[in-house]
Each structure stands twice: as C-alpha cells, then as structure tokens.
Amino acid sequence: MSSFLELQMNHNPQQNIRHCSEILLLKTQDIAEKHECCLLLHFRIEGILHY
Fold it and tell me: Angle at CA 50, nearest 5°, toward 6 and 23?
C-alpha cells in the first residue's frame, strides 16, 4: 500500500494531494455534523482547498 502511494505521489503529486484533501474534507464534514467544534476545521480545510 505504501509503495503504491509513493508511486502515485511521484506520478502526479498535484492530483494526489487534491484526492487526499477531498477525502480529508469528507471525513471532517462527517465529524463536523456530529461535533460542532470540528465545523471550523472543516471550513478551514475547504478554504485551503478552494484557494
């Protein structure tokens, strides 16, 4: 798994970063719906993504 991830990173880092960020965004959104304190973190990540 880690060698596959390294290969992906070397192949197209920009696309991989976006993909990982989208996963992170989905995870924080899921948590944010359960815990209001995480909502700020979620929007901050979203802001960084759409910069």
Answer: 45
Residue 44 has which token pair?
């901050």
pLDDT, mean of each 10-residue run, the chain (51 residues)? 54 74 80 72 75 56
Question: Which helix (H) or strand (E) covers residue 20, if one does?
Answer: helix 13-34
Residues in the chain, overall count: 51
DSSP state of 1: -
Its pTM stands at 0.40
Please give the Cα distance from 15 to 22 (Å, whole number): 11
